[in-house]
Amino acid sequence: MTTDDTHAANPHPAETSQHDARAQQAMSWYGFGSPVGLAVLILSISVSAVCLRIAFFGLPG
Hints:
61 residues
């Protein structure tokens, strides 16, 4: 893919670069390497583990 092909596919390359910059900023905060993303990952793994336990062993009590 050449530069001309990229511009032909997207007639607004400035908007794409701005969008890419914003996407990069979002991933730096919400990605799994950040505190927020890591917390979401750990929470989702914990909830999945609890759901599997309930599915296999039923509710306690």
